[in-house]
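Re: export button greyed out
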Amino acid sequence: MGGDFAPDKILEGAILAQKELPDSDRIVLIGPEEVIREKLTQMGSDVSLFDIVHASEVIGMGEQPTKAFTQKPNSSITKGFKLLKKGLIDSFASAGNTGAMLVGSIYSVNVVQGIIRPATTSVLPKVNGGVGVLIDVGTNPDSKPDVLYQFGLLGSIYAQHVYGIENPKVGLLSIGEEEEKGNLLCQSAFRLMKGTPDYNFIGNIESRDLFNDKADVIVCDGFTGNIVLKQAEAMYRLIKKKGISDPFFDRMNYENYGGTPILGINSTVVIGHGISNGTAIKNMLKLSKEVHEAGVSEKIAQAISQYTHSKIFNEKSTDTPQDQ
Amino acid sequence: MGGDFAPDKILEGAILAQKELPDSDRIVLIGPEEVIREKLTQMGSDVSLFDIVHASEVIGMGEQPTKAFTQKPNSSITKGFKLLKKGLIDSFASAGNTGAMLVGSIYSVNVVQGIIRPATTSVLPKVNGGVGVLIDVGTNPDSKPDVLYQFGLLGSIYAQHVYGIENPKVGLLSIGEEEEKGNLLCQSAFRLMKGTPDYNFIGNIESRDLFNDKADVIVCDGFTGNIVLKQAEAMYRLIKKKGISDPFFDRMNYENYGGTPILGINSTVVIGHGISNGTAIKNMLKLSKEVHEAGVSEKIAQAISQYTHSKIFNEKSTDTPQDQ
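Workaround output, generated via the alternate export path:
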């Protein structure tokens, strides 16, 4: 029931995904059973191809996430997290209330031990092919330097295991290339990242480098990442509106990427765009499978247990310098 | 001598501007006199059309601004500010060291009384014509809520008197439209701006609205503004590289806007892009004339002496809420 065009576009996407996924994969639809059965039949689909878990309630887009999550045990989001926690499903994806998806991720399947804050991520296409991983894209509008440090690790693991980028180049998004450029947050994060053995930190990058090969992982606070992402989306829409068709700009279409996984939690959760159409939902489902099969959560847990964070933090100051 | 292509492109721009400006306007070239004379002659221009003020030193792009400004009294930037302070020139524009231009603005011509921090601004084209004023674009990477509040006023006066936008709609750039969305800085700034009689505050806008009619003035900290601006520039360059020509995207060309004025100081100063070519320099000179003739500094001084800032600040908290 998530997203602006539920349940029609959600089911359309599920039907598309079911056709493309191997028979060993099973899509579990969580929502009002009668509606799902009726719609699937209307769409000419075989209901038996799906598992259906009845959920009588819906968490609306405007509802307060924590309250809704706890007070609506029969909502599709709450039920999804119950199934995920029990291991009855391998991944959970929804285009519904983002906040409720986060609350479920943090309080139901829990944050990986050692991770300060889970992060959401999205990808930006590169002019020469491939993608860059942008982390965080909105979950942490106010991030501390040590949180940005961890984003480098999360993004690095994600880029490597889901997009097959070996030894991903991790850049810190700032407003100048030199170490002393940027806001106080960036300056502090740079000092933590500099020379880290945990990932391949290449220094600051500027937003003019978002679409080139300079960095594979672009680290920023969630406020900045969300601004970048929505500006790229706006530009893509303007280009389409002008009737311009170009392979690179077409790759900016969010539908192709399916959604933003939440990294740093003990399971696989993908949040879809509220305006998702059938293609976007299909790709959201396929992405959730890829993230699960790549073992991203497990790899993050393993990396965080071994990484040198504590060592670095003892040697360098973790404090943000005093603001003027 | 400022910018990556000085002195050739600077002089090329000056020649272009001189042709377009009325005879009553006089362009003063500040730099090594011999070089200027020689180059102008080479370019087939009449040296007598310009005033030349000899400056034997240059502040390099990588130099520490304050140090360079004080230790190089014969640099073109230092000399320019001396002329500006004495009223021998009406406006000063340079594509040189941005930091040194700021230092000169703050310590030579001084900040308008009541202004907490001067700001740099740039314009973004709107799909339906016209422009939006983005403020700040890099001068204040870490801004406090009361500084953002003033940016609303500075941007509003600039949009009205230079771009002729009556009662400009001032939006706060955030990552959601609701008051409680965004980072702590935005949330605090929103509370200060809400209901202000000083300008027409319309609430939060998102980066997807940068190019539409939602807001005429877009307020943000300098870190965010710089990220937005350079991303827009990157997108423009990609579009050009693809050979796409479109009236809207062509209006994203920084050359057309000439530079970013520093608002909130007691004179007119415009900073040009380091990569400025002749057209950009021409437009930088024309913009500096427009900003001067619109009396932007005086109008800001007048507005700040009357505005309700202090009243609002007594009623509402000025503190950023504690970070988590």
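Chain B touches chain A through 41 residues (CB under 8 Å). The button fix ships in the next patch.
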